[in-house]
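User: Teach me something about this protein's shape.
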Amino acid sequence: MKEHAIRLTYGQDLKKEIESYCMSNKIQSACIVTCVGCVYDCHLRLADGVTKKKFDNHYEIVSLTGTIANGQSHLHISCSDINGSCIGGHLLEETHINTTAELVLMELEDFNFSRSFDSNTGYDELVIKHK
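Assistant: First, the predicted structure itself:
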């Protein structure tokens, strides 16, 4: 396993930057270890797997978790608002960093992650192979 630490700044797209970093660094298989920071214009796909919603506010990142396979991510985020109320779901592009986001990624060098269409779910799902 190999650790990667990234700091994102104002206006960057959280999902795009994670995927771009992994592609630029030729990271085939990775997971999110931790992420703290804040975002605005939080775009999520909700639990029904269809509904996409934009939350126009400032949010603290409470958690970010997921996997990255050859630059394709499957990420879920939880964020809290000014009242401490949380929103969460599948992270979509156009979720922007407000002041900062500090991320630690773990490159899983013993695994070969890829994604393949699963007719049961209708999504490209993670395929895990041990090297």
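Now, about its shape. The chain has one helix and eight strands. The radius of gyration is 15 Å. If you'd like, I can walk through any region in more detail.
User: That's plenty for now, thanks!
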